[in-house]
C-alpha cells in the first residue's frame, strides 16, 4: 500500500533519513505549511481508521495536531455527549501522530525537531479501569490489519511493541503509556509531549496540577481534557470556562470543543434514533439526559451556590460596614482547625420586616479572618473587632475547639449571648437547610461594591462559597469544601452559624432606624 505522502518537498516526501530535506525555514511559524502537514496526517489517520473523521470530529483533531506542531502549550477541553466518538477521535489522532510526527521531524527539523526521538504520550483517567477505555482504543487502532499494512509500508517501516501498560513504536521512538490519575498513585517522573485526561470531570485537581501538569514542562507540551458534565465544579469545568472566555479574544485559537447529541445526530442517524428513545425513557429534563446528552452542568444541585447566584445576591452599592450600633447584629464564628482560618462573620438583620414565614433579611456587614495567630491573641482580636458592633448573639460550633472558644468569649463578652451550635449531622443539616432557604428567597445579601470586591476577605469569601459542594446523604445535607489542597470552607461555616441564630432565637426588642443601604 502506498502512503498518502507524495514525491515533492512541499507535499512532505518521506524518503530515507539521509534523503530527507528540511522544509522552508522562516523566522516565524509558516501557518500554511503547518496546515499542509496537518492535512497529510489527517489522511493517514483516515487510512488507519478506515473512514474519514466526521465533520464535528475534524476541528478537534486538527487543533490537537496544530498545538503539538506550533508548541503553544495549550490546554484543550472537549465536552461531548456520551458515545459520540470523543475517545475514537483522540485514539485516531494519537495513533496517527505517533507514527507521522517523528518521521516528519527529519523533513522539517526546525519545526518538528523535538519529535525526532519520538512522540511521548500519557493517557490518564481517574482510575486505572477508566484509563483502559481510551488506551484499548489506541491499541486497537495500532494493531488493526489496516495499521499493520501502514506500518509495513517501506516508507514507514515500523514495528509495534506492547509491554503491559506501554505501547512502543520501536524504530521512531514514539511511546504511549497508560496511567491512573488516582490521588494515591505515585506517578511523578515521566515526561510527555501530550497528556490526555479522559473522564476529566472526575479527575483529582491536585493530581492534575501537581503531578501530571509538570510532565509537560520540559517539552512545552499539550494537555487534552475530555469528559461530560456533572454536579460539581472541577479543574475540567474551570478550564472549559477559561477556554470559552479566551475564545472571545481577538487572535485566540479555539481551545474548547463542545458536541451535544443534536450535532452528532446530523451525521449519525442511528445515534439520533437511540438518543431519542432515551429521551422518551428518561425525559428531556431529567438529570441523566441533561448530563449525558444535553451537556448541562447541574451545579445548582451539586454546589451550594453557583457563580450567577452569587452575583445575584451581591449588592454592588454596598461596601463593608466597619461599625454598626443602630440595631443588634448576629455573629458566626468558625474556629480554626489545623491549616484553616478562624473566620468571624457579622450580619445585620432586618428585625422589623420578617416575611410571611418569619424569616428575616440578612446582610453581611464584615468579616474577620485570623490565620497564623495563637488562640490567646485571637480571643482579643475577636473581642476588639466585635466591639464595633451591637452584638445580639454569637453562634459557634460546639464540640472540640468550639467549646473552648465559647467558654472564653462568655467571660470576655458577658453582654452577648454565646450559642453553642451542635455539630452532629442532624443539626448541621438544619443549619444548611436554613441557609439554603434564605438564599433561595433572596434573604441573604453581601456587599459587592467595586472597592469591596478588591479586598482579600471578599475574594476568599467568594472562592469558598463557590467551591462549597452540596451532598445529600440520606436525610442529611452535607456542605463542605472539595477535598483538594487550598480549598477551605471557613467563610461558609461562619456564615451559616450566623444565619441560623435567627431561626431559633427570640427576636430582640429593636428601634427603627434608617439603614445605610
TrEMBL record:
InterPro entries: P-loop_NTPase (IPR027417), Terminase_6C (IPR035421). Keywords: Viral release from host cell. Residues 331-499 form the Terminase large subunit gp17-like C-terminal domain. This is Terminase large subunit domain-containing protein.
Amino acid at each position: 500500500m502506498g502512503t498518502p505522502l507524495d514525491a515533492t518537498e512541499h507535499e512532505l516526501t518521506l524518503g530515507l533519513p539521509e534523503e530527507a530535506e528540511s522544509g522552508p525555514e522562516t523566522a516565524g511559524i509558516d501557518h500554511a505549511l503547518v496546515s499542509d502537514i496537518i492535512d497529510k496526517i489527517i489522511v493517514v489517520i483516515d487510512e488507519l481508521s478506515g473512514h474519514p473523521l466526521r465533520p464535528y470530529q475534524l476541528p478537534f483533531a486538527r487543533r490537537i495536531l496544530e498545538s503539538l506542531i506550533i508548541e503553544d502549550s495549550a490546554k484543550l477541553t472537549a465536552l461531548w455527549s456520551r458515545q459520540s466518538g470523543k475517545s475514537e477521535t483522540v485514539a485516531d489522532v494519537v495513533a496517527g501522530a505517533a507514527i507521522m510526527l517523528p518521521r516528519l521531524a527529519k523533513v522539517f527539523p526546525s519545526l518538528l525537531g523535538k519529535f525526532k526521538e519520538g512522540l511521548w504520550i500519557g493517557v490518564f483517567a481517574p482510575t486505572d479501569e477508566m484509563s483502559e477505555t481510551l488506551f484499548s482504543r489506541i491499541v486497537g487502532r495500532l494493531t488493526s490489519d489496516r495499521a499493520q499494512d501502514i506500518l509495513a509500508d517501506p516508507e514507514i517501516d515500523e514495528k509495534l511493541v506492547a509491554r503491559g501498560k506501554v505501547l512502543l513504536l520501536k524504530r521512531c521512538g514514539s511511546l504511549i503509556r497508560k496511567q491512573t490519575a488516582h490521588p494515591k498513585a505515585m506517578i511523578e517522573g515521566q515526561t510527555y509531549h501530550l497528556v490526555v485526561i479522559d473522564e476529566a470531570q472526575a479527575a483529582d485537581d491536585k493530581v492534575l496540577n501537581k503531578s501530571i501538569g509538570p510532565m509537560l514542562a520540559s517539552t512545552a507540551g499539550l494537555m487534552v481534557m475530555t469528559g461530560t458534565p456533572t454536579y460539581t465544579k472541577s479543574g475540567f469545568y474551570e478550564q472549559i470556562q477559561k477556554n470559552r472566555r479566551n475564545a472571545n479574544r481577538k487572535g485566540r485559537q479555539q481551545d474548547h470543543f463542545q458536541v451535544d447529541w443534536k450535532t452528532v445526530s446530523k451525521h449519525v442517524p442511528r445515534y439520533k434514533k437511540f438518543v431519542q428513545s432515551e429521551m422518551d425513557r428518561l425525559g428531556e429534563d431529567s438529570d441523566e439526559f441533561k448530563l449525558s446528552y444535553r451537556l448541562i452542568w447541574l451545579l445548582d444541585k451539586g454546589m451550594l451556590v453557583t457563580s450567577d447566584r452569587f452575583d445575584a445576591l451581591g449588592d454592588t452599592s454596598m461596601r463593608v460596614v466597619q461599625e454598626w450600633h443602630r440595631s443588634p447584629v448576629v455573629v458566626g464564628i468558625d474556629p480554626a482547625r489545623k491549616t484553616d482560618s478562624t473566620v468571624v462573620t457579622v450580619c445585620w438583620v432586618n428585625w422589623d420586616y420578617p416575611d410571611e414565614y418569619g424569616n428575616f433579611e440578612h446582610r453581611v456587614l464584615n468579616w474577620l479572618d485570623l490565620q497564623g495567630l495563637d488562640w490567646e491573641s485571637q480571643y482579643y482580636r475577636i473581642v476588639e473587632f466585635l466591639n464595633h458592633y451591637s452584638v445580639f448573639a454569637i453562634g459557634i460550633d460546639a464540640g472540640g475547639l468550639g467549646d473552648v472558644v465559647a467558654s472564653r468569649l462568655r467571660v470576655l463578652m458577658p453582654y452577648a449571648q454565646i450559642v453553642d451550635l451542635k455539630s452532629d449531622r442532624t443539626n448541621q443539616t438544619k443549619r444548611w437547610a436554613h441557609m439554603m432557604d434564605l438564599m433561595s428567597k433572596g434573604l441573604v445579601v453581601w456587599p459587592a461594591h467595586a472597592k469591596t470586591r478588591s479586598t482579600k476577605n471578599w475574594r476568599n469569601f467568594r472562592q469558598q462559597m463557590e467551591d462549597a459542594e452540596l451532598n445529600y446523604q440520606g436525610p442529611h445535607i452535607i456542605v463542605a469544601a472539595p477535598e483538594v489542597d487550598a480549598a477551605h470552607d471557613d467563610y461558609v461555616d461562619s456564615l451559616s452559624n450566623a444565619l441560623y441564630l435567627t431561626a431559633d432565637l427570640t427576636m430582640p426588642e429593636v428601634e427603627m432606624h434608617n439603614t445605610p443601604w
